[in-house]
Design a protein that fits this description.
CATH class of the largest domain: Mainly Beta
Order of helices and strands: EHEEHEHHEEEHHHEEEEHEEEEE
Number of strands: 16
Oligomer: single chain
CATH topology of the largest domain: Tumour Suppressor Smad4
Distance between the termini: 20 Å
Largest sheet: 6 strands, antiparallel
Helix content: 25-40%
Strand content: 25-35%
CATH architecture of the largest domain: Sandwich
Amino acid sequence: MPPRVQLFANPQSGTHSARRIAALRRAFESAGAEVIESESSAAVPPEIDPLATHICVAGGDGTVRHVAAAVARGRHAMPIAQYPLGTINLLAREAGYHPDARRFAERFLAAAVRRRHYTATVRDEMFLCCASAGPECAAIRGYSPALKRRIGRFAYAVALVRTLLRWERHAMVLHAEGRSFPCEAVYIAKGRYFAGPWSFAPRASLLDDKLHVVALGTARRRDYLRFLLDLALGRDPGARPGNISFTCSHLSLDGPAHVEVQGDGDLLATLPLEVRSTGTTMDFI
């Protein structure tokens, strides 16, 4: 019986490409698979086909997160992969998925060894790669989908510049490992990468169940720009005076009720909340 690939895409995404998705479908079919095209978007929640043997998400990290959550809720056991068609593609970057449709399809269908990715939650919402409570949440809230369709990831840069002009600081308290830390921004890595090819926790891994945390004691404009500079230069932002870094499996964060937390590029919840490594895994290729 040929493999049956359920291919998810988000047609509402600013990076959606019908041409590339059609090429990926042809690549799967040329490799001997049957393909079920499905949608995962704000208007159409993902539904897992019970006859599918593989799940492929042609989209960004947020779409992967939604589809993976649907797989987990249904207790399905089929492997998942991300075809890098989103803005950032953190999971695809860490897993080394190739953007060439033929090479991607051949690897996906031929893989005998699965990568067991540990998941985490913000409150009850799953995330796979990273979460944060910081200025980037305001940028996510304020970016323009129309502009994203025209200039891609640079729409977030435009939104971040606007955030810098209308700067807000929020006093929070991070609780973990029996200690409490006053802070103004918190970054949580489940995987290695954050916002692109950068990392504030290079030892973090999707294959590890630990949360890698960096907290900024103050988040003035210059503190945040130093944080971005540390990312660009590969330096540890937790080593700066007033900041902290550590690993844990559970933390809680208190602060103003309007402060938002993002996970994998989606705004997930507001404070106060808990973040946990679930200790459970999902199969990726």
